[in-house]
Amino acid sequence: xxxxxxxxxxxxxxxxxxxxxxxxxxxxxxxxxxxxxxxxxxxxxxxxxxxxxxxxxxxxxxxxxxxxxxxxxxxxxxxxxxxxxxxxxxxxxxxxxxxxxxxxxxxxxxxxxxxxxxxxxxxxxxxxxxxxxxxxxxxxxxxxxxxxxxxxxxxxxxxxxxxxxxxxxxxxxxxxxxxxxxxxxxxxxxxxxxxxxxxxxxxxxxxxxxxxxxxxxxxxxxxxxxxxxxxxxxxxxxxxxxxxxxxxxxxxxxxxxxxxxxxxxxxxxxxxxxxxxxxxxxxxxxxxxxxxxxxxxxxxxxxxxxxxxxxxxxxxxxxxxxxxxxxxxxxxxxxxxxxxxxxxxxxxxxxxxxxxxxxxxxxxxxxxxxxxxxxxxxxxxxx
Length: 383
Ligand SMILES: *Cc1c(COP(=O)(O)O)cnc(C)c1O
Fold this sequence. Notes:
This protein is of the alpha/beta class. It has 2 domains: 2-246, 3-Layer(aba) Sandwich (Aspartate Aminotransferase, domain 2); 249-381, Aspartate Aminotransferase, domain 1, CATH 3.90.1150.
C-alpha cells in the first residue's frame, strides 16, 4: 500500500512509522549524541549521531519517499549537501554547470573546489547542445538548477539526462525552487537530487538544512561515507521541524502556485511593469518544457520596471508592508528582494545584466497569505 501512495499521503506518511519505543505518532526529537550498547557491537542500529540519528534518519526516509527515491541524506545546509556531491569527484575531474546558478553554489565551486583541481564549466543549458560542446573524457558531473534564480529559466531535465547517460556522466539537479510536489528529477533520469531544505521543504523560515536523494546504492554509499567522514550533518531538533513542515508541503505549494499565478497576471497588467518572469506564461521562452516536467509553476516571480530605475525599485521594496524585504525564499510569508543590490551584488554589473539581472529587477517569493492582501500591498507600493 505504502508504495502506491500519492504525493500528499507520502508527505505525511512516507518512510515514517510510529516510534518503536512509545508509539508516538510524531517522530521524537532524539537529542542524543550516543547510544548505549548491550555488549561490544550489540546495538539497535544507532552508534553515534554523526553517523546516524533516529530523528534525522526518519527525515531522510521521508525525503526519499517524496522525491521518488530510495536513499536520503540530510546536511547542515544546502551548500553542505552540494559540498558532499563535489567531494565524490577527484582532482582532474570536470563539472558542467548551469550558468545562472544560485550565488552560493557558484562560490562553492569556484573558490573552494577549483583549488583542489576540479574544473567547472558554466554554460546556458536552455539549449542543451552547449553541454555536448563541453563534454570530454574528464567530465564526471552535470549540475542543473531549474527553475533558475532569479530569471526563472527552465532547463529540460530529461534532455540533459540523456546526454549524461550517453556519456557516462552523473546528473545532479538542485530541486530547491520546484520542490518534489512540482517536479521529481529522479523520474526524469537524474542520479542525485539536491535541496536547500531551508526553503520550501522546511517552509517556515526557521531552519537551515540541505539534503541529497538518490536511487542507486553505490552512489548512496559514497554519499553516506562522505556525510559521516566530513560530518556536515543537521541536528535532531531541526530534523523534527522539517518533518513537521513537510506534512503540509503539498498544501503550501498548491497555495504558492495559486497566489503566484494571480500575482504574475496582475503584474503583467500593471502600467509601471516592463517584463514579468514566471514560467506559467505561454510567452515564457521555456513554457513548453515547464509544462512537460512540472505540475505547476510555483510562487517565484521576477519583474522589471519601465525605465529600469534602481531608485524606483528600491522605493517599492521599502514601501511594501506585508511582503518582507529579505533574502531566502519558500517560507509561508511573502518575501521581496532586489537581486542587483542583494543576492547578486557581488557579480559585476555588466555580467549580471547579461543574464537579465538589471537595476530594476525585483524578485518575489510569494507566500501563502490571502492573495488579495498581497496584491493590495504591491498596489500601494507601486503607485
Ligand atoms: C538557498 C539555496 C541554496 C543553498 O542552500 P543553503 O541552505 O542556504 O545552504 C542552493 N540552491 C538554491 C537554489 C538555493 O535557493
